[in-house]
Amino acid sequence: MGKNVAIFLICFAIAFGGGYLFFKNNQASRPAQNGEQTAQNGEQTDQAAKDKAIDQQQGDASDNEGRILVQRGCISCHSVSALNIQGGATGPDLSQAYVNVEGKHGVPIEEFLKKPTSAVMAGVLGDKPLTEDELKAVLEALKTASEK
After folding, report:
1. Are 86 and 61 in contact (CB under 8 A)?
2. Distance of CA 69 to the CA centre of its chain
3. What HEC string does the chain produce?
4. Calpha distance 104→98 (Å, rounded)
5. Residue 15, CB half-sphere, CA atoms under 13 Å: how many?
6. What share of the chain in percent tops pLDDT 90?
7. How far apart are CA 144 and CA 82, in angstroms?
8. Is the four-CA dihedral 92, 98, 99, 105 of positive or negative sign?
9. Does the keyword Lyase apply (predicted)?
């Protein structure tokens, strides 16, 4: 009986793995139909949208202070009116975030961006934290916004 169970589990694992590989490769090679997009097409569409948003913002800020906010997708939820960046309305306007974050969240803005104390931002930045260069660029953009 034990031998039969072991054979069944091995066959199941092989069949499941083979099916996964077959259908994964088949899905990637077929063209999208009926509004369906493969992950690669979705990523290309997302990148194209980000590039378009970046291009639109170039004329708004004279030295492009807010470019990093567009690149990192911050404007999906936030606007930065001081930099003439129109974004989503889900999150607060970030024009005064540089000076307000510590009072609101209990940690300096640099620490907040490294390890957010709000559940929403922890979820957003937890999956893809800012690099040191991105952190510096975001801080510079938010500082510039708060001074306008």
Report:
1. no
2. 11
3. CHHHHHHHHHHHHHHHHHHHHHHHHHHHHCCCCCCCCCHHHHHHHHHHHHHHHHHHHHCCCCCCCCHHHHHCCHHHCCCEHHHCECCCCCCCCCCCHHHHHHHHHCCCHHHHHHCCCCHHHHHHHHHCCCCHHHHHHHHHHHHHHHHC
4. 11
5. 6
6. 45
7. 9
8. positive
9. no
- For 134, other C-beta atoms within 10 Å of its C-beta total 15
Beta bridge partners of 85: 80
Q: Kindly report, residue by residue over 38-84, the tens digit of the pLDDT.
A: 444 555 555 555 555 555 544 444 457 789 999 999 999 999 999 99
For residue 112, what are the CA distances in angstroms to 46, 47, 104, 148?
A: 26, 26, 11, 22
User: What average pLDDT does the structure give for the chain?
Assistant: 79
Task: Give residues with Cβ within 8 angstroms of 30, minimum separation 6.
Answer: none
Backbone φ/ψ region at 126: left (φ over 0), alpha (ψ -120 to 50), beta: alpha
Residue type at 6?
A
Residue found by looking up tokens 């510079």 in the block: 140
